[in-house]
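idk why but the lab printer keeps eating my pages so im just putting this in chat instead. protein + nicotinamide-adenine-dinucleotide:
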Amino acid sequence: MIVGVLKEIKAEENRVCMSPGGVEFMRQHGHQVLVEKNAGKASGFGNASYKKAGAEVVDSPRDIFKRAKMIMRVKEPQPFELELIRKGQIYFSYLHLAASKELTHALIKRKAVCIAYETIQKADGTLPLLTPMSEVAGPMAIQQGAKFLEMAQGGHGVLLGGVPGVDPATVVIIGGGAVGINAAKMASGLGAKVYILDIDLDRLRYLSDVMPGQCVTLMSSPATIRDVLPQADLVVGAVLVAGSKTPTLVTRDMLKTMKKGSVLVDVSIDQGGCFETSKETTHKAPIYKTVVLRPPKKQPIKLRSIKSTTSFIMPSVTCPVRCPGLLPWR
Ligand SMILES: NC(=O)c1ccc[n+]([C@@H]2O[C@H](COP(=O)([O-])OP(=O)(O)OC[C@H]3O[C@@H](n4cnc5c(N)ncnc54)[C@H](O)[C@@H]3O)[C@@H](O)[C@H]2O)c1
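predcted complex ->
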């Protein structure tokens, strides 16, 4: 088969779908590989390394669309490329069609064979092409969340792990699959208190067995989500209903019960997102404010919700409250 590897053109996309090692593997199996010029540049693979592995480096993506039986890429085709896809041609990439009716219809019109990486399932139901990305996205969600909890970034100034004498932050992870467990590992590793919500009781049992004690598992339901949101400093959306658009689990009204300056990271945005206010962002402009938050009338939680970690620990050293032992001569 002639396999065409296209350069990513979606904004800020630096990945490449095939390394020179992948080309070598394809060649060993008798396939011809066309690689678009500079396709691997941002990932550190030069044109020469692809040539050495046996690929033909091609200047024009149009030529690749014309010659290849199967097009491979990380991301979906961009609107102006759709007319280049030929009838019967295979387009193999992440597609997330459940979240895009327009792209779905456009691809059906092209009569192409489109295979979405994220829908490929092993016999045991696991998703081998999605999981590696989830293993990156889970920890990244925590890393980014921690950054945007800083006051200079608009957050309410809470350190995930707290410090001795001050409560750690509360991280709520909705969805305890591959993204969820990896986010929980990172958050608990940093010392946060973590709630993991899922609807699969067997998965919760497993998480409860393997995760450290500060990770509490909860059966996900609108009531549970309503309960935990007011406590949360950071919420991660990590839900997947394979092949479907993500259900909206956190409504605008629920968001209004959250602390001002808390942070939400919706990893499931590629399937439509699980927060009502979610929309796609870019690395250059990664955040936006969702709803105007007012502190709930009755604060069910710690004062930390309105003070930063540092302000909270400082008084305990500058104005220490001591209970001196009674002196025998008093
Ligand atoms: N943006 C990115 O770069 C990126 C990368 C990887 C994955 N993702 C997305 O992250 C999401 C999660 O991926 P994953 O690999 O962890 O999937 P997964 O299948 O491993 O886990 C999803 C979990 O969600 C749970 N779930 C389903 N409905 C739920 C509900 N109502 N409440 C709570 N939990 C529920 C499932 O039981 C499952 O445990 C997907 O939408 C995926 O597309 C995004």
